[in-house]
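Q: Given only this backbone (340 positions), what sequence would you predict?
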């Protein structure tokens, strides 16, 4: 009684009616209601595999067909059976050929003399699941590649041991000015100014002390044209093609820091203007306010002297106001520069 409830869609490529009937019986013994399609020649199999509507889960292939045999048959069926597990059922006992066939893309190789229902069931299930896992990994790798290479932020992968770039995305190439080929011959040292190398060494030491941890740093990088930029960078451990590495995502924050610096300078200027208004202006203003009651007394002898004092204080106040205006113009100029 069948124990496997999954309804597999199976293509059997076999020209011998007796062998086909035996394989079919084995399948019906182990699988519940498998969907079985039969092709007796390579050409018939070619037509079936060219039709995307068939969606076969597994292919069982005899290596001796009327119109094609052996290694050429395997190569052609593999070309048409992308992502479909291919299990060879053959009477050949050539060990070297069986090994070579596996290198050509065959999932399994079973001698017909050793074929049983259980062995066939095990091979189909294991190879189907393995192919599914491989497909998932390939899809995951494809998604990773898309995220990595199409990210708008400069991103790279660096070897932990050598600090050499293992992969870079287009944003890194565009932002730093190097070609992909140039970057793949460089290390992290090559994009850091000399005075920043001690900071690089400290960062690498921290990463080694905390393996597996994600780090976040602000540092200075050097472009190909020598321009220095401030970057915010996030670094995470990563295994790249079996190599212990880190993946880094960078954000250029140079303009942001320059803006903050300009704002701080503006605030300092405004504070200075405020101090002028509260201290320097107060002195001549106080003298003017003190002279006003005296002038009201209409003492003719002192009036000329008081007018002199009043004029001097007014001139002093005028100079202070001019200084404030000049400082305001500086602030406005820097503000306009930031907007450009």
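A: Predicted residues:
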């Amino acid at each position: 009684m069948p124990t496997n409830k999954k309804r597999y869609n199976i293509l059997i490529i076999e020209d011998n009616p007796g062998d086909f009937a035996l394989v079919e019986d084995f399948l019906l013994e182990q699988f519940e209601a498998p969907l079985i399609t039969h092709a007796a020649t390579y050409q018939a199999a070619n037509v079936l595999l060219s039709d995307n509507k068939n969606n076969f889960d597994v292919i069982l292939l005899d290596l001796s067909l009327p119109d094609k045999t052996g290694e050429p048959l395997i190569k052609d069926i593999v070309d048409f059976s992308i992502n479909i597990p291919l299990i060879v059922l053959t009477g050949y006992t050539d060990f070297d050929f069986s090994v070579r066939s596996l290198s050509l893309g065959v999932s399994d190789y079973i001698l017909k003399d050793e074929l049983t229902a259980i062995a066939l069931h095990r091979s189909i299930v294991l190879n189907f699941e393995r192919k599914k896992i491989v497909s998932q990994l390939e899809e995951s790798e494809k998604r990773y590649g898309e995220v990595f290479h199409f990210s708008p932020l400069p991103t790279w992968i660096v070897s932990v041991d050598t600090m050499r770039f293992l992969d870079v995305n287009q944003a890194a190439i565009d932002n730093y000015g190097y070609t992909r080929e140039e970057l793949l011959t460089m290390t992290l040292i090559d994009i850091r100014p000399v005075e920043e190398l001690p900071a690089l060494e400290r960062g690498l030491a921290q990463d080694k002390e905390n393996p597996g941890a994600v780090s976040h740093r602000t540092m200075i990088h050097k472009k190909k044209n020598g321009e220095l930029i401030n970057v915010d960078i996030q670094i995470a451990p990563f295994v790249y093609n079996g190599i212990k590495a880190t993946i880094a995502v960078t954000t250029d924050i140079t303009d942001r820091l320059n803006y903050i610096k300009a704002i701080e300078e503006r605030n300092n200027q405004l504070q200075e203007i405020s101090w002028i208004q509260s201290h320097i202006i107060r002195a001549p203003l106080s003298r003017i306010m003190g002279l006003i009651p005296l002038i009201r007394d209409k003492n003719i002898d002192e009036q000329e002297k008081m007018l002199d004092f009043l004029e001097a204080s007014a001139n002093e106040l005028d100079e202070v106001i001019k200084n404030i205006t000049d400082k305001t113009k500086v602030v406005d100029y820097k503000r306009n520069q930031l907007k450009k």
